[in-house]
Sequence to fold (256 residues):
Amino acid sequence: MRPIRAGILPALVTLASSMALAEEPKPQYYVLHQELAKPSKAQDYEATSKEFVALVKKHKALMPHFSFDCQQSPDFTYAFVAPIKSMADMDAINAEFGALAQAAGATFADLNKRGGEATQYIKESIIASAPELSYAPAQPRLKPEEMPYHHYDLYYLKPGTEPEADALASEFVKLFKAKSVPNGYTIFKVVMGPEMPLLVVSVGARDAADYYAEEAKTRLALGPEGQALFARAFALTRRFETRESRFRPDLSVPAH
Fold:
């Protein structure tokens, strides 16, 4: 993972973990830093990424604001999701990268160079959870730790349809609650990045097979009402894509 950059950050949303709805939900903001590894150098990329994780953990006292989860997609995209409270946190993280670079010296520069040679390109964005538009079942089928796999539906909305999309998302939550669907989901919005407005629906599962099996059950449970809501969602959408990823704890730096 290369240093996080402040400013206008291009985005391709991929990842995140499911969040429970609070009584007075507030969005959680994240820096989403994505690196696409060269397929022929994927082993080199992972090796340097593990070196970076070890370096950060060794100097964690210099980087108290910095933590991230890594998610890997089948196309060799590695998404590093770092929680932040505000843009001020980004300034603090950038300053901590400077402190790390100074402490590690030539090791840091060499690591960046070798990692860069195995990387095709880098993208960054700011995303925020929308807990009021997300669904947390009263009796979830799986615990968070039982969901290393995540599936993402990306709704690239038609500009100007954001209020309609929010209202529709609320209708989805009501229907999921009424049907007591055991699988939850989290909605994320891109706060800063290209191709906005963009909504991402993240669903956790044990693996891809588990996700698709449960998705079929959910669609059946939602019935005609669900079909009607999805039709309205696609009417607001200029482009639709799906993504998937799996959690890589060995390439992550936990907060504690």
Remarks:
- The CA atoms of residues 54 and 146 lie 26 Å apart.
- The first helix runs from residue 42 to 58.
